[in-house]
Amino acid sequence: MSSFRDKFYMASGYAAGFCIALIMVIILMQIVGRIFGFIVPSAEDVSGYALAASTFFGLAYTFHEGGHIRVTLVIQKWGPKARFIQELAVLIFGLGLACYMTFYCWHMVYESYIFEEVSHGYIPIPIWIPQIPVGLGMTALAIALLDDLVAVLRQRTPSYQQHESDINLEEI
Q1: Which pTM value belongs to this model?
Q2: Fewer CB atoms < 10 Å away: N or C end of the chain?
Q3: 40 contact partners, CB below 8 Å, separation of at least 6
Q4: In angstroms, rounded to a whole number, what is the distance separating the alpha carbons of residues 3 and 55?
Q5: Rounded distance, CA 141 to CA 132, Å?
Q6: How many Cα atoms within 13 Å fall on the side-chain side of residue 135?
Q7: Mean pLDDT by 10 residues, the chain (172 residues)
Q8: What are the domain boundaries of the chain?
């Protein structure tokens, strides 16, 4: 089961990386187009959508790998009971916030689909299509938070703390 979750988070990270590569390809196409006198229609729109997708796809992977900013200088000095309470409170709050955001991201996709909103670029792209990765990314983050909340409740080390020992406080 753990390997499935790891593959899920890795797939989210790969999706984020793919979107970054897509942005690079679009920008290169624009540069070549300017040199040879043609335009890439809706390039700004598509690269903006890819930027949003890469941001939201990267949330779960970054959280799982411990890449989000944590104030470890203070937390490391606490005892096990205080740290457990702090981790539990933060994960519950984060999960609540992620679930709230996930609901409204999918609601935004639904409303864009119902109202048939389209982009205003050269190519009229239905807005709900580039909004789907935002909903998927928030769903993945909520799953990652729930996964680590369950780990903390079971007295296990959450995934984001596994790389915490790599930080050397004496170098800071």
Answers
A1: 0.88
A2: N
A3: 26, 29, 30, 33
A4: 24
A5: 14
A6: 16
A7: 84 97 96 94 94 96 84 80 91 97 98 95 93 97 96 90 62 50
A8: 2-165
